[in-house]
Amino acid sequence: MKPHLKQWRQRMLFGIFAWGLLFLLIFIYFTDSNP
Predict the structure, then answer these.
(1) Which UniProt keywords apply (predicted)?
(2) C-alpha triplet 10, 29, 34: angle, nearest 5°
(3) Which candidate, 25, 4, 2, places its Cα nearest to that of 12?
(4) Coil, strand or helix: which one is 35?
């Protein structure tokens, strides 16, 4: 396995994790602010 491909996959996983965390924070924020 090429190290470049591994690095790209790691970056992609981090990106998906970051977006998921961001959406989760927005979801929690809106559900908390709206009673």
Answers:
(1) Membrane, Transmembrane, Transmembrane helix
(2) 150
(3) 4
(4) coil
Tokens describing residue 7: 């690095």
Q: How far apart are CA 30 and CA 35, in angstroms?
A: 9
Q: Which two tokens mark 4?
A: 């470049």
Q: Confidence class of residue 2 from pLDDT cuts 50, 70 and 90?
A: confident
**pTM (whole model) above 0.85:** no
d(C-alpha 35, C-alpha 23), whole Å: 19
Tokens representing 8 are: 């790209």
The SS3 assignment for 34 reads coil
